[in-house]
Design a protein that fits this description.
Elements lengths: L3 H4 L4 H7 L21 E2 L29 H5 L4 H17 L4 E2 L23 H16 L4 E2 L17 E3 L2 H19 L3 E3 L4 E2 L2 E2 L4 H11 L5 E3 L8 H6 L11 H12 L5 H24 L6 H15 L1 E5 L11 E5 L24 H5 L5 E6 L10 H11 L4 E7 L18 H13 L3 E6 L14 E4 L7 H10 L31 E3 L8 H7 L16 E9 L2 E8 L5 E10 L11 E10 L4 E7 L6 E4 L4 E4 L2 E10 L2 E10 L14 H5 L7 H8 L25 H19 L5 H7 L16 H12 L2 H28 L1
Bound molecules: beta-D-glucopyranose (BGC).
Beta-D-glucopyranose binds next to loops.
């Protein structure tokens, strides 16, 4: 232990107190023992330090900081070095604001296009997500502070996020949902990691020994601090025993007593507490020193310029009929769409940054050299039909050679806490597009949205520029691409399906129940579409350029490939060369091909370069559920090099030595998983894949019943609470402005009351509420009252002792 000297001076109460937060974003301090507190702040695309009233949903204001493009955006650059530069700048701002732990990046797998937080995540592919996240972590930690990759793990939906059980087979868990985290932990050594709210196969992620001990700490060698998501601690003692270091936010002193009781009763050992404390103290001393040394200012203009560069490198050109783009100097343009004046540039929730400055597309156009004949709002942002706005825009469109139409999802469509209802743009925007296309054939759509959309309207535009959510400088980046100052080189980090109805997870995503069946197994995103042979709108890895690239001279060994890439067009540009591994004759079923390497190469017009893409230990492996380890199936593999997952330019064969393990599925009937046709997997087959019966999905009246579920209890008071919350929520959704606070409460389990009320409610009081819901009204109520009195008395005494220590 690194800090045994301090630990031995602490009594059990002091030790336990240090393992939970002191405020919403600060750890506890014991000044008498020389232990300072540190600050943790969101987040993934800029610092959200709340100097005043703090909350974990981004509701109250925070100190101004640079709002960088969201992770979903920068992922489209396929450039971990760019991620590292962004991370470094965010880390610098964090350190300047005395933040020790920056709560990001988020790298959950985009299992469904509808997850409300997809804008915060990198990709549907774990290799790309892991590599990008590793870049961010390296950059953030260059400042001596800690990054905090999140949310570990299998947290791919927002509905019931604090009380949903992700039911997933071990192979899919390892290959899809954990590989990105493995890459970031092994390659970038984050000092902390955030456990997710949900359960994984029946056990809360934060107290899941399999995740935290077996895999994270033992297999991957993580020796840092595991931080709970805010209110994500279920049983703090089990968390500590199984590898979770710090419970956040301040849960009240009841949590300290809970931990002490667990030690005293032998449920956990004091050694467990000491081990976690050692991790915490290391984090505190190490990052505190870095923060103290860091300058209190940073170059905001330089960070703005970096944010613009990052956004520009991440723009994906999805369509460019007749080479309409780039626009020539002086081109007569009309600008339409509300997003041109008020950009949509980040998502809602805990990641929302109070931006230092926000550029608008309209303002940025003044420096573009284009001739702007005017601007019209065109549509109501929240989707209300408005004929006058449409008419005005159509009239303006007739006066220009090219129409730049800024469309996108409005602020509330993509938010933490809330999954999207569909993959559609608002109808009033589509009506405008159709009307404009009828009077002007040269329509360029500039799209702001943090996740994939259906594009049946593609025919109505000649060019489609996808800026994703480009951060505070994203508007300028769009202008750079339109004018050709920047040649677009971004590629999609997620598949764009033709329609949500094609999604492989649609029947098992965001259900109302307690369990979420990951029935599709490995077949998420392109892994499904390509194996099952389903067409898509835009494949994974797709993106156009103003130039063209030729691939030749592929040389391959099992350790990697080299090839020559030539820029065959007229302008300089970057190409993302992708390497997919396939085994068409595989005995152990697997997706048709999987991304195992990529390289971004910058080429002047006419220039050729030799590109090397190494393959690592993850290239051929699969998780064998019989041997419970990574194995390699021997034989020949195809190494496919392409410009997207659907545009393979060169293929080579290599022979790989296998590890000789038997096929774990030899005598298991898995016909759908063998073909990838997984949209109709019967129960028995999913159970066979799981290796156990599918867990029952029923509401139980216990600490983990959500407030919204109280309607299923036996307490009239509970019914009332559920009904009122439900009504408020429904109303706010109908108004087009879902109330994130109410939403959070509606989906919050009862036990979180004891974790998120600053100590006002104890777990004993929660147990009283549970009794109440079970129908023991009088005893339940009495218990709540007795426990409340006890809580107040004990808290007062404990705080006094801790203050004096
Ligand atoms: C989010 C985390 C965030 C935390 C603190 C939670 O609601 O899930 O991603 O870091 O709040 O704001």
């Amino acid at each position: 232990m690194k800090h045994a000297d301090i630990i031995q001076t602490l009594d059990l109460e002091q030790k336990c107190a240090l393992l939970s937060g002191g405020t919403v974003f600060d750890t506890r301090t014991l000044p008498g023992k020389g232990i300072p507190s540190i600050t943790l702040s969101d987040g993934p695309n800029g610092v959200r330090k709340q100097a005043g009233a703090a909350d974990h949903l981004g509701l109250n204001p925070s100190v101004p900081a640079t709002c960088f493009p969201t992770s979903a955006t920068v992922a489209n650059s396929w450039d971990p070095a760019l991620g590292e530069a962004v991370g470094e700048a965010m880390g610098e701002e964090a350190a300047a604001q005395e933040v020790s732990v920056l709560l990001g990046p988020g790298l959950n797998i985009k299992r469904s296009p509808l997850c409300g937080r997809n804008f915060e995540y990198f990709s549907e592919d774990p290799y790309l997500a892991g590599k990008m996240a590793a870049g961010y972590v390296r950059g953030i930690q260059k400042n001596g502070i800690a990054a905090c990759p999140k949310h570990f793990a299998v947290n791919s939906q927002e509905l019931r996020r604090m009380a949903s059980d992700s039911v997933v087979d071990e192979r899919t868990l390892r290959e899809l949902y954990l590989t990105g985290f493995e890459i970031v932990v092994k390659e970038a050594k984050p000092k902390t990691i955030m456990s997710s709210y949900n359960l994984v196969n029946g056990t809360y992620a934060n107290e899941n020994a399999h995740l935290l001990q077996d895999i994270l700490r033992r297999d991957w060698g993580f020796d840092g601090a595991v931080v709970t998501d805010w209110g994500g601690s279920n049983d703090h003692a089990l968390g500590v025993k199984n590898g979770s270091t710090l419970e956040m936010p301040f849960p009240g002193d009841d949590s300290v007593r809970e931990l002490m009781k667990a030690v005293e009763s032998g449920k956990i050992s004091e050694h467990d507490v000491d081990a976690r404390l050692d991790e915490l103290l290391e984090l505190v001393f190490d990052t505190k020193a870095a923060v103290e040394k860091a300058p209190r200012t940073f170059d905001a203009a330089a960070h703005h310029a970096l944010a613009r560069r990052a956004a520009a490198q991440s723009i994906v050109l999805l369509r460019n009929e007749g080479a309409l783009l780039p626009l020539k100097k002086g081109e007569k343009i009309a600008v339409l769409g509300d997003f041109a004046r008020t950009p949509r540039y980040q998502g809602a929730g805990s990641s929302a940054v109070n931006s230092i400055q926000v550029d608008s597309f309209l303002d940025c156009l003044t420096e573009s050299g284009l001739t702007n004949v005017g601007y019209a709002q065109g549509f109501d942002r929240q989707g209300k039909a408005d004929e006058d706005l449409k008419k005005e825009a159509v009239a303006l469109a007739q006066n220009a050679n090219v129409v730049l139409l800024c469309m996108g999802l409005d602020e509330i469509k993509e938010s933490e806490g809330l999954d999207r209802m569909d993959m559609k743009l608002a109808q009033n925007q589509l009506d405008l597009l159709a009307a404009v296309a009828a009077v002007n054939p040269n329509v360029v759509v500039l799209l702001s949205a943090g996740s994939s959309l259906e594009t049946p309207w593609l025919k109505d535009c000649k060019a489609l520029v996808y800026g994703c959510l480009g951060g505070q400088a994203g508007a300028g980046a769009l202008v750079d691409v339109l004018t050709g100052t920047v040649c677009p080189g971004g590629k999609l980090a997620e598949t764009w399906a033709n329609a949500y109805s094609d999604s492989p997870v649609k029947d098992h995503f965001a259900g109302e129940g307690r369990t979420v069946q990951y029935r599709e197994g490995l077949y998420v995103g392109y892994r499904y579409f390509e194996t099952a042979g389903r067409p898509v709108a835009f494949p994974f890895g797709y993106g156009l350029s103003y130039t063209t690239f030729a691939y030749k001279d592929l040389k391959a060994t099992p350790e990697g490939v080299t090839l020559t890439v030539t820029n065959t067009g007229k302008c300089a540009g970057a190409e993302v060369v992708q390497l997919y591994v396939a085994k068409p004759d595989a005995k152990v079923f697997r997706p048709a091909q999987e991304l195992k390497g990529f390289a971004k190469v910058w080429l002047e017009a006419g220039e050729s370069k030799t590109v090397s893409i190494p393959l690592d230990d993850k290239a051929y492996r699969y998780w064998n559920v019989a041997t419970d380890s990574w194995e390699v199936e021997g034989g020949s593999y195809q190494l496919r090099v392409g410009a997207s997952s659907a545009d393979i330019r060169l293929t080579a064969e290599v022979v790989v030595l296998g590890s000789g393990a038997p096929d774990p599925y030899q005598s298991v009937d898995l016909p759908h998983y063998r073909t990838g046709e997984i949209t109709r997997v019967p129960d028995a087959e999913f159970a066979a894949l799981l290796g156990r019966p599918i867990p029952e999905d029923k509401i139980r009246i216990d600490r983990n019943m959500t407030l919204g579920e109280l309607g299923h209890g036996r307490s009239p008071l509970g019914w009332l609470v559920a009904a009122v919350l439900g009504l408020l929520l429904k109303r706010s959704i109908q108004r087009g402005k879902p109330d994130l606070n109410i939403l959070f409460q509606y989906n919050m389990p009862l036990r979180a009351l004891a974790k998120m009320t600053n100590g006002a409610i104890s777990m004993g009081m929660v147990d009283g509420i549970v009794m109440e819901a079970q129908g023991f009204w009088i005893i339940g109520l009495l218990r709540v009252i007795v426990e409340a009195v006890k809580n107040i008395a004990q808290n007062g005494a404990m705080e006094k002792r801790l203050k004096n220590s």
